[in-house]
Amino acid sequence: MPSKPLPPITMDAVYAAPGYLFRRMQQIAVSIFMEECKAFDLTPVQYAALIAIHTHPGIDATRLSAVIAFDRSTLGSVIERLQVKDYIERKPAPEDKRIKLLYLTKSGAAILREIIPVVERAQARMLEPLKPADRKVLMGLLVQLVDLNNEASRVPLRAEDALEHLGKAG
Amino acid sequence: MPSKPLPPITMDAVYAAPGYLFRRMQQIAVSIFMEECKAFDLTPVQYAALIAIHTHPGIDATRLSAVIAFDRSTLGSVIERLQVKDYIERKPAPEDKRIKLLYLTKSGAAILREIIPVVERAQARMLEPLKPADRKVLMGLLVQLVDLNNEASRVPLRAEDALEHLGKAG
DNA sequence: TGTTAATTGACAGTATACTCACGATCTAGG
DNA sequence: CCTAGATCGTGAGTATACTGTCAATTAACA
């Protein structure tokens, strides 16, 4: 019989774990984003997708998923919701029948212009409780950590993929 | 007509945003957790719930949600899955017919004992790319930020709620 | 060229994570 | 005591976030 008792376990096994803190901070970040942007019917993911499509007009869904590091399957429904809201449109690619090219509509460009300053305020609010110097330190370390751990995620960021839809010579 | 063009927007509006980095880091953390723990059929959320139930035997679902800062509705299905796996059991509270008290089963205690060192390795892996000193700085700032932003989240952490199920005198 | 391999978007399935709402139950106030 | 309000678990509805798989299409290669 394994009668050896459990080692002393406290909630610190959860509260002090990096994974828990990242989850918690993500919850808080989404909450602040949604609160600031409640006048706009737009989620953080949808916002990132709009930015990426604006920055890379004519990108396809697979490359978009690489550029913002979202799962390809998830992105399908995100794109559909953005299309229903008339913020983006999908056009079939003439040279590849599998691909649908993504473009911002006028509505999409307009909402983006309006929401950007609001989002910036939300982003600032997330770090507001820290001293300005600490904010810089935290962001610096996070950028490093996310970059160095890029390959560890299921959907690594591939920012360079974004350029492939612009006539590739190679 | 609003013919004013969009201000210059680059992907840095996404990549450098705290919210995006938190989301990305959370994705990475879950990925590493699941990879390390693939021998155990347990998610990060289920793990945290098991720890909390072990630490607070006889807690009810609502208080559990406050202790680990998970949404009450979400927790319902988490609890059900843990029950199906026979890691926890629910007993009706004699003095309050609304409440169901949560307890670890022997299976639950066993899996917890086995998985804890594996989870610790996963947690270490998340920070591994950073220098040891930087890991401490990052965790310190994160703990601060999560704590100071606690009220900003939809489901604030209420660690003290955990004690209420132990005969309250007030 | 013709078969194989890879890619694209789509779908099903699972698991968080939140919203609002509902019935059952308990508690407080009059 | 008995009603008003709070609380408990639960369910529906939406949105990520991942796992697979699939058909259609394209690319690579023998």
Task: Considering the chains and any ligands shown, give keywords for the structure.
homodimer, DNA-binding, 170 residues
In short:
Two copies of one chain form a homodimer. Helix content of chain A is 56%, strand content 10%. The first copy, chain A, has seven helices and three strands, in the order αααβααββαα.
What would your notes on this structure say?
- The structure is a homodimer of 170-residue chains.
- Chain A is mostly helical and 170 residues long.
- The first copy, chain A, has one domain (18-149): Orthogonal Bundle (Arc Repressor Mutant, subunit A).
- Helices cover 56% and strands 10% of the residues of chain A.
- In chain A, strands 1-3-2 form a 3-stranded antiparallel beta sheet.
- The termini of chain A are far apart.
- The model of chain A has no long low-confidence stretch (mean pLDDT 90).
- The interface between A and B is large, with 71 and 70 residues.
- Chain A binds a DNA duplex (30 and 30 nucleotides) through helix 2, helix 3, helix 5 and strand 3.
